[in-house]
Write a structure and sequence with these properties.
Two copies of one chain form a homodimer.
Chain A lengths: L9 E7 L1 H5 L5 H11 L4 E8 L3 H14 L2 E5 L10 H9 L3 E3 L1 H13 L6 H5 L2 E3 L3 E3 L8 E6 L2 E6 L3 H25 L7 E6 L4 H7 L10 E8 L2 E8 L9 H13 L3 E4 L4 H12 L3 E5 L5 H7 L8 E7 L2 H8 L3 H7 L4 H15 L3 E7 L14 E7 L6 E6 L4 H26 L1
Parallel strand pairs in A: 1-2, 1-3, 3-8, 13-14, 13-15
Antiparallel strand pairs in A: 4-5, 6-7, 7-8, 9-11, 9-12, 10-11, 15-16, 16-17
Helix pairs in contact in A: 2-7, 3-4, 10-15
């Protein structure tokens, strides 16, 4: 096994907190740090999560030191005795903890803005290891710090996302750049990553379509990740190796050519942002009639700032009565075909569009399970309708697999993708 | 620094996959493993995430071996050349990789059920390190395996959640129990954890209320974790140490006594499940009128299987016109007070209840930002209304901090909690 040859440009994140071991939160802090460091050419190659136990933290710190040149710790800097990051770093590095003037003053200034003075717990937050640089916290009370031990930079930040983010941007990135100024001048390039979000094609088919695209010599990694909302394709440059001019761009072009309209978004873009931009550009409005998806289509559409311009309304018609009253679905239709049917999906979309006068109405009805299945209608059966004011309402049938939550997520994604493809056609016709 | 004295009962999870470093998924696999091992007395104290680089995986394996007696790896067992877990384990442990008969046969049997035969990539999945035990995969094609190196058990599983879960239950837990049978007989007890979900009280206040509750000698850790949906309080027994009979139970009682109705749920329970059970027990139905929350209240309520019994419908009235048409909010009210006002919140709840005849209607109107603020109405201002058919509609004003997504999440939680507290009072009166 070769050890990493030069660990200077290898980073590791360590999230500290016993709740993180059991809590089930996604570690958004480490992703933010990964992006911020990647932009200046430093790859996060390891992530660790550890509880509040001081000796466990020490173990993780030592392992990180052996393989990474930059170690960013989040959490464990709070005011309670549970917060052991300071003590663990001091113990591992042999530093002494003492109240630091600039840390105290920053904290006092901040608390004074809120009309408060530091309490005993908060005063603990001004304990900084000897030789560490204090990193001010422009948002909260706990300062961070940075120190070098055995050639590795250890940077400790609070775990509160808003504080961590502000400190990464204002202090950590400038600190790392200043430490690496020399190497940077030697022409090191940032880590680059392109992401392509696809929907509707199984992972094996995406894999087959991309076969032979990336070769070993390119210094680019091709990644596929399947989830309920589709398959994510990524191209990532390998931070330490030089990349041939234009390689990434031409590979991206090839991914686009091979996957075509199965790609619904790139980079940090989301399905709802893509759909929102198309609606906005075309001056169209949308309304949604949801049954089994329970409001998630509306929620996702309105997650985009400014969406009030094109989202008119949504009706979550869980009961049959609601479908009839809110959308004017004929009771006979529900009786004859059942609430989960192509006919009812069509009537829901049509009713919504006619009642609101929006450009396009989207509807979903289905069986998310675990109950509600019949002999002819299994869990996962979903009908989606789209009424764009043409002669006929477009309807599609889907049979999704997974549990209740997965089926609902897939149904939402399928509905939004149907709207996206319809808007793309309209755009083409315009 | 003391190294862990006895690492036999310490576990580590390692999630393998470059996409996990950049992808932003929550690592639900490791949480499942944490629960499953916790139930048999083994604490997951470390979690690592590493990319598909063989040498990086090896580095992580070695660090894990030094601190954990059980290491469970997920991912990197797929059919593509990106999948490097097998090779990394073989290289680190000095094992040879060879096609194993039982692995091949299990795979062939499974694929035959789908009318397929193994392709070249899938055949790679039957490569198993010498001396490892094959762990059959009852759901997918890739088998897992377990081997012992330097006293640590390494267990490799596929990363696909459904496959990983089935294998943990059917193979990993029995394997670990059989390995630990001897120690278990010596009276080792399972790790126990109790969780209390609170809403509406700042973390510092929760901390203050719980002051002095847990002392060092109790062998129980008290954890607090703040998030947009409230503060999670947890009590976790420390796996290696014996616990005094009844300690956890009496501590839990004390947490309940100190936090009272601020606790909205315990354990794996969610707000929507608690609210759903109250509605069901009381035979009440609910309808929701949402503006800034965009459908998330309805989505969360309907996330509970069987919720169609008590959720009648929801209206997402994003435009003023929708509020007037769907809920009968007087246009004059919107004009006089603005859409974001106590008056409109009340009219939305009242309109929804009267139009539907449900027992209780909930409404939300607010400014989620980043746009939409005025001189008198800042981003984060939210009004929630509740009409339970009494003389007056209950309304409350909130001023939330955070970005658009956080404000929306807090507004949803506040609305559901208002409904919960209202139902609790009704229950008390019944």
């Amino acid at each position: 096994m070769r050890p990493p040859k030069d660990r200077s440009f290898i980073a590791e994140t360590i999230a500290i907190g016993s709740e993180l071991l059991i809590g089930g939160r996604s570690d958004s802090n480490s992703l933010f740090i990964t992006d911020a460091l990647g932009a200046i050419g430093i790859a996060v190659r390891f992530k660790s999560i550890v509880g509040d136990d001081q000796s466990d933290i020490a173990t993780v710190l030592k392992a990180a030191c052996s393989r990474a040149g930059i170690v960013i710790l989040t959490g464990g800097l709070g005011p309670t005795v549970d917060d052991r990051t300071r003590e663990a770093i001091a113990a591992v590095t042999g530093a002494r903890l003492a109240h630091r003037k600039e840390a105290l003053e920053g904290m006092k200034t901040r608390l004074a803005q809120w009309g408060r003075i530091p309490n005993k717990g908060q005063l603990r937050q001004a304990l900084i290891p000897s030789q560490a640089i204090v990193l001010p916290n422009p948002v909260g009370s706990a300062p961070g710090f940075a120190l070098v031990w055995r050639g590795t930079h250890f940077i400790a930040l609070p775990g509160v996302p808003a504080e961590m983010r502000a400190m990464v941007q204002q202090s950590v990135i400038p600190y790392v750049i200043s430490q690496y100024e020399h190497s940077k001048r030697q022409g090191r390039q940032p880590v680059m990553r392109m992401m392509f979000h696809t929907w509707g094609m199984p992972e094996a088919d995406v894999d087959a379509k991309l076969k032979g695209l990336v070769t070993k010599r390119m210094s680019i990694a091709l990644g596929l990740l399947a989830s309920p909302t589709g398959v994510l394709v990524s191209l990532t440059t390998e931070g330490e190796r030089a990349l041939k001019e234009g390689t990434l761009t031409s590979l991206a072009e090839e991914v686009r050519a091979r996957l075509g309209e199965w790609i619904y978004a790139e980079g940090q873009d989301t399905m709802e942002e893509v759909v929102g931009r198309l609606l906005l550009k075309q001056g169209r409005t949308v309304a949604v009639a949801e049954s089994c998806t329970g409001g998630l289509i509306a929620y996702r559409l309105t997650q985009v700032p400014g969406s009030s311009v094109y989202v008119d309304r949504a009706a979550v018609c869980y009961s049959n009565q609601a479908k009839i009253e809110m959308l004017g679905v004929p009771a006979k239709l529900v009786y004859d075909y059942g609430a989960v049917s192509r006919e009812v999906a069509a009537a829901m979309a049509k009713g919504m569009r006619e009642r609101t006068g929006v450009s396009v109405a989207l509807s979903v009805t289905g069986i998310a399970g675990p109950g509600g299945a019949t002999e002819t209608k299994p869990v996962g059966l979903v009908y989606i309708g789209l009424d764009g004011g043409g002669d006929e309402v477009i309807t599609r049938e889907f049979r999704f697999h997974g549990d209740r939550s997965v089926i609902r997520q897939r149904a939402v994604q399928a509905a939004l993708d149907m709207l996206r493809r319809w808007l793309l056609i309209k755009k083409g016709n315009a």
